[in-house]
Amino acid sequence: MTHATRMEFANAIRGRYAVAANKDKHRILAEFVAATGYHEKSAIRVLNTPPEPKRRRTRQRPSLYDEAARGALIVLWEASDRIAANRRGQRPAAIRCLGSLTSGRR
Prior knowledge:
Elements lengths: L2 H17 L2 H15 L3 H9 L18 H13 L7 H17 L3
């Protein structure tokens, strides 16, 4: 069961769980735990919290590179076998790769 499916299931049960008596709450909780595999305390937290609305993350700042520079960086990245471990390792590799690309060697 995926996280999204679990959250859909929790949203469907949440209202019923909120208005149920204690005996019914225990039965609903046991049903939810069996279906999702959550620990009881985690299931209680999920069912007692209101559902969070889905928010899309939007980019707050403009892109640093125009399309031409971005294309050149992608060519460099692919020529360097997509190196991206850390920035300190990228700069020397990028300089070596640029030298070989501009001289016609690959």
